[in-house]
Amino acid sequence: MPSLMPPELSDTVRTLADLVYAGESFEAVADTLCRAAVELVDGCDHASLMLRRRGRAVTVAASDGVAATCDDLEREVGEGPCLDALDEDAPHQHFCADLPEGCGWPRLAQRVLAETPVRGMAGFRLRDDGAKVGALNVFSDTPDQLTEHSLHQATLLTAFASVVLVAMDRGQEASTLRQGLESNREIGKAVGLLMAMHDLDQEAAFAMLARVSQEMNLKLVEVAARVVRTHRPGG
């Protein structure tokens, strides 16, 4: 059976939890997330985090000036994968692996190619109870380095991080945030198991988990814990 969660991602989840529990600021946790994206997502050279605040998309963290510049350009021209992740209903992720070959955001591509080394980009939305509240944005300096595997890595990272970032923005207690992050991590493990057992993609596996949760009238994390517990050795 394939690994349920890459060890590096598990380490990042623990690091985020430790930062929250130690009383670190929202900014410190957001910066850690952006650095983690560069380290963990294949092909990612720069990363940023946008949140919607008072109706505006605001960059709250960036791995470097290149990522911050790309966010500024998106807001200036009014189009791009990060804004789409915040504003459009589907799909969940918005990306262009090769900007020189053309993409759905021609004005942005022209500016990015002229003013930055970035040649590929993607945006992954953060949700809070179904509402689109932000986006993790990843950028590559080499065409076609953001692959399907890269998108999967970024999707998982976004799912785990969204629990902490949204809750911290609301000012929730550290113990609650840590518990929420661990719960989200358990859901990720269960989704991985279902993907392996039933040959499903991530979206279908999550839908299966949600359906069972509804049918059994149990919280999603409780169903996830049962799935993981049942499929442990000796479970």
Automatic annotation (TrEMBL):
Q: Where is the ANTAR domain?
A: 167-228
Please identify the protein, giving its name as recorded. GAF domain-containing protein
SUPFAM superfamilies given in the database record: CheY-like, GAF domain-like
Is Kinase given among the entry's keywords?
yes
> What keywords sit in the KW lines?
Kinase, Transcription, Transcription regulation, Transferase
Question: Which GO terms fall under molecular function for this chain's record?
Answer: kinase activity; RNA binding
| Top-level taxon | Bacteria
